[in-house]
Amino acid sequence: MSSFSQSVTDHICGQYHNRCGICLCRCPAASVQTAHLIDSTPAGGRVLEVAVDLCLLTADYERNSSMNGMALCADCYISYFAPNLIALSPPAPVLDYICNYLIDTPTTDQKPLNQVFDLLRLSMTGSNVALPDPTPILPYLGLFTIVPLMLHELLDCTISTNHLPELSHLQDNQFAPAPHGTSPADQNVARIFDVLAIAAGNPPVSLGDIPLWLEHPQFQQQRYWHLPVRIEAVLAVLIEQADFGINKIPEINTAKAIGGIIKLQRLGLKVSKPSADDGPVPGVGPAGGGRSP
What we know:
Elements: H1 6-16, E1 33-36, H2 42-53, E2 69-72, H3 74-81, E3 86-89, H4 92-104, H5 113-123, E4 143-148, E5 158-161, E6 167-171, E7 174-177, E8 189-194, H6 195-198, E9 208-211, E10 222-226, H7 231-242, H8 250-266, E11 269-272, E12 283-286
Parallel strand pairs: 8-10
Antiparallel strand pairs: 1-2, 3-4, 4-10, 5-9, 6-7, 6-8, 11-12
């Protein structure tokens, strides 16, 4: 249950214009669910402690502030997010960038991840930042995906939307409307659910489904959500939830790897890039040694 103050609740609902951030439907004001990214409960406090320990967030992160909340419809919240059947995730390219940063950058030169994400946001303004070139991931910053956590509970489940976005494709390192005839299965093609772009408007009805189970023929199509939340908070929650997730989901594997790499490096262990046979867990060895990539 939300513990946001009335002023924060009003701010979140106003920001989303009473639309669900996932399915984009407009809700009666009384039924909008203002959901925490990191819960205000003791369990959420433990998530924050881990996030601070991993240097993803600082100890003064406000769980009851608007930056830690999003608006959802009752169906998306009660059916899927509240029981932890699905989770938000940074896109795979962003997760891979962070994982490679931790592996490729000597530990003595690494910045805390909360500072890395601050610099990545700065790079979106065109500023040069003291990080490995972030250009390839700039189109994905501010976007998120949905990952299933409990497949046996999601069999045949889909989220319906009245506002299925048109296809976009990656061109000149930015997403733009896809040309006529583009297939949703084409490479570098995605649907971007942008609640802020349609929030104040009256978009046309376009019926569609968001599949939540792996065997659905359209599950592998790329879908992203543009949401006004912090990447590092989403990643912190995903790392906590990844223990309950499934290894078939690349984003879950990489989130596990990021948390594991940080812990291993603190023990003085060198982390190397896994081979194709290693699975999601990076290879480790004593400092100065370890397996070759």
